[in-house]
Design a protein that fits this description.
The protein is mostly beta strands. It folds into two domains: 36 residues, no CATH class; 104 residues, Immunoglobulin-like, CATH 2.60.40. 4% of the residues lie in helices and 41% in strands. The protein has one helix and nine strands. It has a four-stranded antiparallel beta sheet with strand order 6-5-8-9, with no helix packed on it. The chain has a three-stranded antiparallel beta sheet with strand order 3-4-7. A hairpin with a 2-residue loop joins strand 5 and strand 6. The site of fe (ii) ion has 6 residues, from loops.
Length: 147
């Protein structure tokens, strides 16, 4: 997919804001790339590479971490078939957005599982989008609607 990419850290600006990078804080360093990230092909059956890279969501609507707030957890693991966590092949980052706006970035190493959780405020609605970065296979996108 075409997208705006930070030339310093590789962050993809889904909202098109290219003034400042929210990850590395560099200014005016975005460039448009034809292959900024890969999307799942919902019409075709997934191959092994897709199954290991497309972010896989689980929404926990009653997480209860902050009682009385209606908070919601969105769990993301990479992917439907768990991605390797080896020093030579691992997930480096999981970046979260809501309705194309950046909300969080999780840095990963091969010492932990390729997964992350975002803890949303109660009443949050919209599309939670994720772009994960594999050190060998690039960036992969998926999204889920929170109602
Ligand atoms: Fe990979």
């Amino acid at each position: 997919m075409k997208g705006l990419v930070c030339k310093v850290c590789g962050y993809v600006a889904l909202d098109g804001n290219k003034e400042i990078c929210p990850i590395c804080y560099a200014k005016n360093v975005f460039e448009e790339r034809e292959d900024a990230y890969k999307m799942p092909d919902f019409k075709a059956p997934s191959g092994e590479t897709e199954k290991k890279h497309i972010p896989d969501f689980t929404v926990v609507e009653k997480c209860g971490l902050i009682p009385g707030t209606g908070c919601v957890d969105v769990h993301v693991k990479i992917g439907e078939v768990l991605h390797p966590a080896l020093s030579e092949h691992h997930i480096q980052e999981i970046t979260f957005y809501i309705d194309n706006k950046f909300i969080s970035n999780v840095m990963l190493t091969s010492s932990i599982n390729p997964a992350a959780v975002i803890h949303l405020k109660g009443g949050t609605k919209g599309k939670v989008q994720v772009i994960e970065t594999c050190n060998l296979h690039g960036k992969w996108f998926n999204e889920i609607e929170i109602k």
